[in-house]
Write a structure and sequence with these properties.
Blueprint: H1 8-14, H2 24-34, H3 39-48, E1 54-58, H4 59-62, H5 65-74, E2 78-80, E3 85-87, E4 98-99, H6 107-116, H7 129-135, H8 147-159, E5 165-170, H9 174-184, H10 190-196, H11 199-224, E6 238-246, H12 251-267, E7 271-277, H13 283-287, H14 289-300, E8 309-312, H15 328-334, E9 340-343, H16 353-363, E10 366-369, H17 371-378, H18 387-393, E11 397-399, H19 404-407, H20 411-422, H21 426-438, E12 448-449, E13 452-453, H22 469-476, H23 479-496
Parallel strand pairs: 1-5, 5-6, 6-7, 8-9, 9-10, 10-11
Antiparallel strand pairs: 2-3, 2-4, 12-13
């Protein structure tokens, strides 16, 4: 039995017991089975495995509290004790403010700020995880010039977990769009609404959003030393944006946000889709949910003009009435044309849940699972989570972080939690990684067709460094397929380890 090629961790875990399987995929399956229930070994495994991409992450919530506190010190901001928050100067000692530079010297304050900005040490027995989670976003913010720092943190962390693609949700153009919406007012006739939002004003919002992307990416590349010796591995992560719209404002503002989001996406290939964010159980969000779906259907032409991913069904019966929890996922898919559903945790409580699941499966609509977020916000974990419903219905599933800084998680921990909670094997983990790119909003044909490699590359070894001429030419015409090919190369290297 040949064991010299196996990593030390594999030898320690297996003790060389039993025959080694023939193929790299089979050996990887065998190794993962041998470490089942051994968290330290499983952690190393999921951190090292290629994970395809991250499709559901909010930029502001992805940054860890410690980074916000460091920037507060560097930028001359203030820390407030109650509620724990970062505020603009001048610091007010009467309200318990201290200078940002003094935060690190006050250990109890520093700890309180980290806890206040995240779910760390949250007392679930005495408070609402849902309320604390969403309240954190009112307590910190970064100056506009720090958005590049935020991107740098996100892509660097992903790269160190062997993840090379990300769609970051960011509020691009929201402020300007909201002003246009207030000026327009609301009409139930959406065609009339379209005439009230001037194209010239939308163009100005688009220009500002593109300048913002340019500036923050330049800052990100400078921080990561991209193109220089010793560049950070984050430079190799493909970055795209989802333009996020805020659902807790008046309907006319949501309409203008949607118009601006579509214009940004059509003007700049870095923006690949839109999403609707903020608490779904907010009274305004509940009251206007159907109108929001109508707006998105109207401005995106049922998802044919631009890609649509929607937070939908991020609810439980304890948060809203049974009627509210009965149709949000269905409306997002059927009315608004969503191609991906964020969370979808209330699916079991929806009217005709099996019909909605069947519709998602038949239309190729994926669900984005953010497991630690579902636990923190909704108290859903293990058997309470609808993972099994989606799996049984054949709905494509993707693992994401949601707000990794707030939840104190990362993509590897999400994979570890899925592995341990749902008894996943290597084939299922690999499918999750592939799903992240198959259901990305990158343009171009997909490498995979019903479980098989696209005909153009079927005779090639997936991920080969030098594919044949026909396959190479086909790959050149599809950004999505190129990212998928890069993932297959990483998966081959990973499986060869075992």
């Amino acid at each position: 039995m040949k064991t010299a090629a196996l990593p030390l961790i594999a030898l320690l875990a297996t003790g060389c017991a039993g025959p080694i399987a023939a193929s790299p995929e089979a050996r990887t399956t065998q190794y993962l089975a041998s470490i089942r229930g051994r968290t330290a070994f499983e952690t190393v495994f999921v951190r090292e495995m290629p994970k395809g991409g991250e499709l559901h992450t909010h930029l502001s919530g992805a940054v860890y509290a410690e980074s916000y506190l460091r920037w507060a010190a560097e930028d001359g901001l203030c820390a407030r004790r109650s509620p724990p928050s970062i505020v603009d100067p001048p610091c007010d000692p009467a309200r318990g403010d201290v200078s940002g530079a003094a935060i690190a010297l006050d250990v109890p304050l520093y700890r309180a700020l980290v806890d206040g900005f995240s779910m760390r040490n949250f007392p679930y027995a005495t408070g609402s995880g849902h309320d604390h989670f969403f309240d954190t976003f009112e307590r910190f913010d970064a100056r506009r010039e720090r958005y590049g720092d935020m991107l740098a943190e996100v892509v660097s962390r992903l790269a160190r977990q062997n993840t090379r693609y990300v769609e970051v949700m960011q509020s691009l153009g929201v402020g300007g769009a909201n002003r246009l919406g207030r000026e327009a007012g609301w009409s139930d006739d959406l065609a009339v609404m379209s005439t009230r939002v001037p194209e010239s004003a939308v163009a100005a919002v688009v220009a500002d959003a593109r300048q913002r992307m340019d500036a923050q990416e330049a800052r990100m590349r400078a921080l990561l030393r991209c193109g220089q010796a010793g560049e950070d591995p984050g430079c190799g992560v493909t970055l795209r944006y989802l333009v996020q719209m805020i659902r807790t404002v008046p309907r006319e503002e949501v309409f203008a946000q949607a118009v601006a989001a579509v214009a940004i996406i059509e003007a700049d290939p870095r923006a690949v889709g839109l999403n609707l964010v903020a608490p779904e159980d907010d009274p305004v969000a509940v009251r206007d949910y159907r109108d929001h779906m109508r707006v998105i259907d109207h401005v995106t032409r049922h998802g044919t003009r631009v890609n649509v991913a929607l937070h939908a069904g991020e609810l439980t019966p304890s948060l809203v009435t049974p009627e509210v929890a009965s149709d949000h996922v269905r409306l997002a898919v059927e009315l608004a044309g969503a191609r991906r559903i964020g969370h979808g945790t209330d699916i079991a409580w929806e009217h005709d849940a099996r019909g909605t699941l069947a519709m998602m499966a038949s239309r190729g609509v994926a669900v984005e699972h953010c497991l630690r977020s579902a636990d923190a916000i909704l108290g859903l974990r293990g058997a309470e989570h609808p993972w099994g419903l989606y799996r049984e219905a054949g709905v494509a599933q993707v693992l994401c972080t949601d707000d990794e800084g707030v939840s104190r998680t990362d993509l590897s921990r999400e994979y570890l939690l899925a592995l341990q909670s749902f008894g996943l094997g290597w084939t299922e983990l690999k499918t999750l990684a592939r799903n992240a790119l198959s259901h990305s909003f990158l343009p171009g044909a997909t490498l995979w067709e019903r479980g098989s490699i696209n005909a153009a590359c079927r005779s090639e070894v997936p991920g080969a460094e030098r594919p044949g001429e026909g396959c190479a030419r086909w790959l050149a015409g599809s950004e999505r397929a190129r990212e998928q090919w890069r993932l297959e190369a990483s998966l081959r290297r990973f499986e060869a380890m075992w």
